[in-house]
């Protein structure tokens, strides 16, 4: 390529010719003329008008000027310059060029040159501190010393006022960080740019204390591979690189993934860290009231976040590599700031922090091999409130709570998440509650056990942080036994984080200024002027117990719909909900588990604080916003019952958004942490006229269950059935509304508003989850099939394979009953329209003659040495002799006897023999007089843990017997007879319908639901 320039100077009447910027020669031109024709390139018009002298080759970048160029200008036009472009982030980039020549003239406009910038070379740091490369925090008196985004910075004073002190520790969701020094102008964070940092040890999660500046990427959809928590919803601006996919569509670059390095392999992680200013406060670890700038402090809140990614708990981590964004701030360029890194091991270890010394001392206590922490009780915080009308100060909180599982040791969590002020805890204690009539009191039973924090009597909890108390040396816990946890608050704060609508916890608060009453045994400081009490909790959010491998299951949601609004009638705080029914069953189930209630009234999956009450926000952070704090940071959590979504639908969520950005996002989070979700299908809402709430900015007004809303509910439920595990709530609690064909709640399952569940309604949900071992509808002879001699077992059919509780059972639903005797003589199928129901439309029942007819399984269905329950609907046709409804054969005796006895003028009874021998001793029996020949619902329950037998008649507890030790009867389960002294006996005369058995002890609400035949 050759650069040619011709110049004519009309004033000097000379022509000059340049080749590659150098003057070749000049010549005088005495005269020129004005050529009126077009400009011709690559040819000349000669004499005669023909074009000739074309250049064989290529011509480019032809320019004309209306003046004579100088030699300097021509030389500059030919010369080239080397410009080095050094992008501060990796991935695809576009270089935009706007050229001007020496004459000041430009080309036609901007020209783009796409190129791919290599990532930063990996830097291996000796320590976290050695990698610090940015100053994001400035002192208020010299804000120029910090620049988080190149100009603005965090306020060191705000951080200190929040309890986030330089070189001190802060624990968030079980992860303990040591903060770097800040406020001195020194580097206090790492700009993530492919640095590898040593992190050694084991745990179940890795947590990073982070924020983003100049966040330029927007999450557009739920990423199925995303594995960090909390969840940043679509539309949130995050720090990320961008890729050009070739169709003008932008998406995050894969290069922004970080790496977790183990001793033998590695895994990747991704972080969707929101902007420090525009990001949502609901997922922030701390929100500070200001940000600093060289021009002065601004009242613009600034946020720091904590994100957690799952680890392989069976491997040892050696280091982590940060995502590759930018190692140097560029105006408007996104940056990811890392303030700390911590391992989280909540399953077997407890971090103990002594906050009374500087720097804080951090130790860890580890449970013995073979044991782990199991969640026993929880009340999630929903926001910060003040119910006493003045600042909290120098007073004692005493909280009575009921754990769901027994354990050999205990630890409590005081959590200030969502709080804006640090808390100073003076002292804390734990004791057994004396209780009264089964309800809690402020009085201890026995002495108080002091609780310490890092071996000190008190602790400081920064805003947004938490503290575990050191596990006491000896404090065993018994399931469902009320405990008292007391702590004193010594500083002054205007608000405290709170959980309202508690029902397994009751708080007592002494008057302001009364000081430390954590060891008071009289209860007097918690009564009288200035004191408060009620079914709510402040600051205390969790209690774990030490077990030998027991898992935790959480119930995410409490089913309280529009709880604060004027036109609803949710059940009260002392009422029993789904989590309580599951907790009540736990001590008697074959596989023990801890149940924690992680519900917040009026909570939604996707929307934070969706409603208002008395001018304040209610409903709490969304389930996705609080997923790490209220679910993932609990020990040994393996199962979560997702009991949310109906509030979203009632308040306008469309099915596609709720499914794709709500449930799928939630499912991804749980799956990443190896947690099994069980989805409770949205319960019917037909007939709900709405909550009557007035609309206000950011909230919804009245929210009736219209036909459109109900269709959305059905669409969501249809999608939820695609997941592995779910509870068919509509199928178990719903009936058809004959006026419109929609499904409505069973009258016995609902309260007056037609949307909130009654106590039996919650219990029916529990029955649908903790399903029977066997169900014999005894309707087999329907539609003329009176010749049948087998009663099918439908228990597993009703739950199919979508109930994880099936995995804990022994051959469920696989035990048909074979009828014995002569058909139509000793047994027959008959109809009774009073027994007609959804499962048995014509009311077919089994009729026995009381002399030889009975039914028996081919083998045992229950382990009668363990807890169990048996139920049936029965109708006696004769009361002249003892008659057994259900039993299970041993060798000589039955393991239990449920039926009718002639004593006391006729009674229903449940009794047990002391041994499987001839003429054994009788154990105490539960018997209830008043047996009739009407249809009667009988339930016999045996609790092996308490050695107690209970007899329920028509849904009510009729009799109790204690001190009973059973043995395992390994023979057939029988309907209509028992075994006594080796002989069949006590044949039942009459009709039996819908017999069932369970491999655990049913609770009273569950039995009420059975009696009301809620499915």
UniProtKB/TrEMBL annotation:
SMART domains: LamGL. InterPro entries: ConA-like_dom_sf, GDSL_Rv0518-like, LamG-like. Keywords: Disulfide bond, Signal. It holds the Pfam family Laminin_G_3. Residues 866-1005 form the LamG-like jellyroll fold domain. PANTHER family: GDSL-LIKE LIPASE/ACYLHYDROLASE, PUTATIVE (AFU_ORTHOLOGUE AFUA_2G00820)-RELATED, GDSL-LIKE LIPASE_ACYLHYDROLASE, PUTATIVE (AFU_ORTHOLOGUE AFUA_2G00820)-RELATED. This is LamG-like jellyroll fold domain-containing protein. It comes from Actinocrinis puniceicyclus.
């Amino acid at each position: 390529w050759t650069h040619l320039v011709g110049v004519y100077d009309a004033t000097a009447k000379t022509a000059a010719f340049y080749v590659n910027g150098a003057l070749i020669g000049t010549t005088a031109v005495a005269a020129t003329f004005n050529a009126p024709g077009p400009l011709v390139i690559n040819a000349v018009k000669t004499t005669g008008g023909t074009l000739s002298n074309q250049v064989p080759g290529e011509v480019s970048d032809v320019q004309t000027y209306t003046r004579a160029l100088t030699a300097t200008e021509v030389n500059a036009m030919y010369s080239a310059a080397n410009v080095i472009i050094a992008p501060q982030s990796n991935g695809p980039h576009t270089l935009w060029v706007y050229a001007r020549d020496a004459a000041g003239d430009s080309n036609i406009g901007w020209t783009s040159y796409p190129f791919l910038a290599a990532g930063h070379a990996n830097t291996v740091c000796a320590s976290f501190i050695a990698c610090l490369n940015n100053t994001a925090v400035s002192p208020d008196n010299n804000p120029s010393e910090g620049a988080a985004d190149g100009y603005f910075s965090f306020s060191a004073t705000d951080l200190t006022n929040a309890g986030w002190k330089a070189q001190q520790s802060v624990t968030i969701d079980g992860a303990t960080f040591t903060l770097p020094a800040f406020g001195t102008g020194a580097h206090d964070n790492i700009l993530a740019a492919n640095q590898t940092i040593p992190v050694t040890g084991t745990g179940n999660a890795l947590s990073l204390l982070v924020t983003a500046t100049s966040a330029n990427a927007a999450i557009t959809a739920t990423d199925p591979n995303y594995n960090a928590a909390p969840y940043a919803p679509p539309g949130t601006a995050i720090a990320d690189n961008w890729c050009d996919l070739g169709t003008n569509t932008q998406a995050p670059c894969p290069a922004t993934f970080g790496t977790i390095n183990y001793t033998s392999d590695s895994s990747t992680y991704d972080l969707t860290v929101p902007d420090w200013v525009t990001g949502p406060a609901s997922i922030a670890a701390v929100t500070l009231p200001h940000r600093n700038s060289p021009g002065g402090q601004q009242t613009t809140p600034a946020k720091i976040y904590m994100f957690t990614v799952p680890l392989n708990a069976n491997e040892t981590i050696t280091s982590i590599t940060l995502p590759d964004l930018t190692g140097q701030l560029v105006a408007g360029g996104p940056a990811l700031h890392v303030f700390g890194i911590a391992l989280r091991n909540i399953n077997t270890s407890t971090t103990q922090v002594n906050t009374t010394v500087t720097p804080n001392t951090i130790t860890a206590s580890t449970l013995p091999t073979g044991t782990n922490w199991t969640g026993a009780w929880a009340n999630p915080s929903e926001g910060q409130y003040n119910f006493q009308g003045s600042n909290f100060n120098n007073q004692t909180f005493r909280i009575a709570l009921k754990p769901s599982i027994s354990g050999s040791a205990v630890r409590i969590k005081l959590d200030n998440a969502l709080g804006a002020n640090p808390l100073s805890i003076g002292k804390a204690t734990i004791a057994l509650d004396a209780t009264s009539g089964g309800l809690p009191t402020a009085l201890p039973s026995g002495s108080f056990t002091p609780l310490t924090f890092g071996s000190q009597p008190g602790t400081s909890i920064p805003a947004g942080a938490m503290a575990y108390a050191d596990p006491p040396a000896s404090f065993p816990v018994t399931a469902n036994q009320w405990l008292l946890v007391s702590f004193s608050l010594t500083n002054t704060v205007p608000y405290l984080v709170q959980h309202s609508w508690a029902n397994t916890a009751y708080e007592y608060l002494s008057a302001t200024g009364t000081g430390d009453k954590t060891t008071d045994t009289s209860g007097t400081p918690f009564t009288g002027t200035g004191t408060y009490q009620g079914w709510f909790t402040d600051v205390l959010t969790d209690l774990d117990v030490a077990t030998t491998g027991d898992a935790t299951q959480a119930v995410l949601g409490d089913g309280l719909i529009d709880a604060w609004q004027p036109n609803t009638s949710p059940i009260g705080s002392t009422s029993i909900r789904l989590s309580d029914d599951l907790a009540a069953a736990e001590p008697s189930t074959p596989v023990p588990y801890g149940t924690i209630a992680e519900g917040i009234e009026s909570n939604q999956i996707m929307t934070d604080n969706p409603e208002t009450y008395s001018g304040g926000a209610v409903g709490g952070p969304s389930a996705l916003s609080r997923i790490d704090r209220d679910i993932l940071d609990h020990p040994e959590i393996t199962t979560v019952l997702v009991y949310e979504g109906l509030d979203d639908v009632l308040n306008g969520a469309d099915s596609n958004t709720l499914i794709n950005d709500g449930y799928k996002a939630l499912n991804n989070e749980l799956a990443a942490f190896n947690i099994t979700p069980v989805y409770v299908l949205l319960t019917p809402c037909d007939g709900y006229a709405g909550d009557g709430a007035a609309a206000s900015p950011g909230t919804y007004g009245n929210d009736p269950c219209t036909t459109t809303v109900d269709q959305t509910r059905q669409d969501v439920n249809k999608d939820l059935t695609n997941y592995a595990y779910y509870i068919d709530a509509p199928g178990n609690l719903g009936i058809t509304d004959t006026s419109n064909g929609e499904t409505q709640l069973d009258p016995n399952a609902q309260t007056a508003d037609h949307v909130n569940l009654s106590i039996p309604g919650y219990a029916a949900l529990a029955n649908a989850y903790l399903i029977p071992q066997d169900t014999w509808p005894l309707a087999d002879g329907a539609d003329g099939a009176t010749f049948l001699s087998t009663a099918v077992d439908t228990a597993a059919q009703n739950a199919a394979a979508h109930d994880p509780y099936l995995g804990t059972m022994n051959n469920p639903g696989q035990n048909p009953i074979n009828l014995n005797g002569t058909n139509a003589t000793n047994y027959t199928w008959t109809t009774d329209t009073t027994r007609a129901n959804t499962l048995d439309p014509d009311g077919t029942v089994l009729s026995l003659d009381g002399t030889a007819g009975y039914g028996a399984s081919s083998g045992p269905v229950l382990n009668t040495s363990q807890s169990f329950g048996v139920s049936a609907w029965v109708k006696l046709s004769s009361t002249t002799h003892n008659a057994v409804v259900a039993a299970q054969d041993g060798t000589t005796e039955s393991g239990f006897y449920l039926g009718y006895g002639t004593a006391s003028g006729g009674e229903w009874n449940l009794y047990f023999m002391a041994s499987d021998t001839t003429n054994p001793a009788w154990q105490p029996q539960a018997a209830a007089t008043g047996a009739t020949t009407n249809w009667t619902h009988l339930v016999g329950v045996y609790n092996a843990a308490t050695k107690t037998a209970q007899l329920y008649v028509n849904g009510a507890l009729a009799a109790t017997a204690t001190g009973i030790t059973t043995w395992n009867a390994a023979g057939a389960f029988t309907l209509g007879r028992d075994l006594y002294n080796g002989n069949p006996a006590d044949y039942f005369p009459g009709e039996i319908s819908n017999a069932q058995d369970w491999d655990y002890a049913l609770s009273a609400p569950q039995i009420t639901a059975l009696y009301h035949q809620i499915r």
